[in-house]
Design goal:
Helix content is 44%, strand content 17%. The chain has 428 residues and is of the alpha/beta class. The chain has 3 domains: 188 residues, Nitrogenase molybdenum iron protein domain (Rossmann fold); 145 residues, Nitrogenase molybdenum iron protein domain (Rossmann fold, 3-Layer(aba) Sandwich), CATH 3.40.50; 33 residues, no CATH class. The chain starts with a strand and ends in a 5-residue tail after the last helix.
Length: 428
């Protein structure tokens, strides 16, 4: 069940799984975006019925206060407490991530940066296979911590026209101001253009299927996006101290995300690969979502490396969404790593803890994009603006060098803008 790749002698570079775009999906998404732009709510209502089996023309697209109240009343106490705790943990985490305003002065120039929350954010929460209150919290909480005034959650309704109670409760607790019953590419388009029910937002975040991802790609620039999410990924680096059963359990946990989820075990120990393969057979036999797990495990592989330095190179090549380090010295290894969405250290730190907000957000870069991208942060919901103030004396002192640069670049108007000020003596 683990494809074996022995690089101990070859030391060839590994390639991450790149995000691929299906031409048929590109075309379909383009048509949906145009429909949303032209038809607004009518398109959302039509596609909710077509794709989700939800008839919403009488009830409307916006979740009502009564629906929120019913969700809170019907949710089991233990689940309600778990969501409250998740929101609390994420609030504490994301409060540490906001940039600070600052200012300084030197030679007549006062300069600094101011930080402002964006006006509105859209949070996409997938539906279909399951309800995901954790994804609600992961996307809404950092926006709320950043001070965003309008936080809109888009998620598909079920055939009954209802949003799962756990999703509605999480949205309310996390700080969402509106929940819209729409999913897919049409949800992203509605957040970008606005409709009668959906306000225009400045940034859209949250994972989704290929159609959601493609709509983000096509609309990026018109609206800010957090990234283009591909299938979930896990790289495990382990040595002979690792528990093969725990690794097998973690591989199955990763596989149940999605049939296209991928995992890579990187190790110096060939015997560990054998032990993990045997443990996998046992775990898969009792897996809860066995069809999905078995399909995803087709993407599993084990990579044999020469030493920990070689393992760190493999990790950086893969730049995976999740990295779990199960070595005798996991912290020491983490210091060598450059590329990973989130790093989990030691045998007790299952990636599943991070999936549910224990010290990590689960909206993370995939498809090798951890080389240049980070997980979702509160800082993603603010803008940082430079502020400059120059007094008369400094303007005169700086004008000659600025003028020289501007004229060398052929920008005579720029040069004149500072030269005239240098000659003025009176207040402007």
């Amino acid at each position: 069940m683990l494809e074996l790749l022995d690089l101990r002698e070859r030391r060839e570079r590994l390639e991450p799984r790149r995000l691929e775009f299906d031409p048929s999906v590109i075309q379909a998404v383009g048509a949906i975006i145009q429909r949303v732009r032209d038809e607004g709510d009518d398109c959302l209502l039509d596609l909710a019925q077509r794709y989700d089996g939800a008839e919403l023309r009488e009830r409307g697209l916006v979740a009502t206060p009564e629906e929120f109240g019913s969700a809170e009343r019907t949710l089991p106490d233990d689940l309600r407490r778990a969501i409250d705790a998740l929101v609390g943990r994420l609030g504490e985490l994301h409060a540490r991530q906001l940039p600070s305003e600052w200012s300084a002065a030197r030679d007549g120039v006062r300069f600094g940066e101011i930080v402002r929350p964006i006006r509105a954010a859209g949070c996409y929460v997938p539906g279909g296979r399951a309800a995901y209150p954790s994804s609600v919290a992961m996307t809404v909480v950092p926006a709320a911590v950043a001070g965003v005034e309008e936080i809109v959650v888009c998620t598909p309704a079920g055939a009954s026209g209802d949003v799962p109670p756990a999703v509605l409760y999480a949205a309310a607790r996390a700080g969402a101001t509106r929940v819209i019953k729409t999913g897919g590419a049409q949800a992203i388009a509605a957040l970008a253009f606005g409709t009668a029910s959906v306000p225009v937002v400045d940034r859209v975040v949250g994972p989704g299927n290929a159609y959601v991802t493609e709509s983000k790609r096509q609309l990026n620039g018109l609206v800010g996006v957090d990234g283009l999410a591909g299938p979930s990924e896990l790289t495990i680096v382990a040595d002979d101290t690792a528990d093969a059963e725990l690794i097998a359990i973690d591989l199955v946990a990763q596989a149940e995300h999605d049939p296209d989820a991928s995992t890579t075990l990187v190790t110096t120990d060939p015997s560990l690969v054998e032990r993990v393969s045997k443990a996998l057979d046992i775990e898969v036999a009792s897996a809860g979502r066995r069809d999905i797990v078995e399909e995803a495990l087709r993407h599993n592989r084990a990579v044999l490396v020469a030493d920990e330095e070689h393992a760190a190179q493999a990790v950086d090549d893969l730049a995976a969404e999740h990295l779990h380090v199960v070595l005798e010295d996991p912290r020491g290894f983490a210091e060598r790593v450059r590329n990973a969405g989130a790093i989990f250290l030691g045998p007790w730190t299952a990636v599943s803890f991070g999936d549910y907000g224990v010290a990590s957000n689960h909206v993370l870069p995939t498809g090798g994009t951890a080389r240049f991208a980070s997980g979702l942060r509160a800082a993603d919901f603010v803008t940082v603006t430079s502020v400059v103030e120059i007094d008369e004396e400094a303007a005169r002192a700086l004008a000659p060098e600025v003028s020289a640069l501007a004229r060398d670049e052929g920008l005579v108007g720029h040069a004149r803008s500072v030269e005239v000020r240098a000659r003025r003596r009176e207040d402007l």
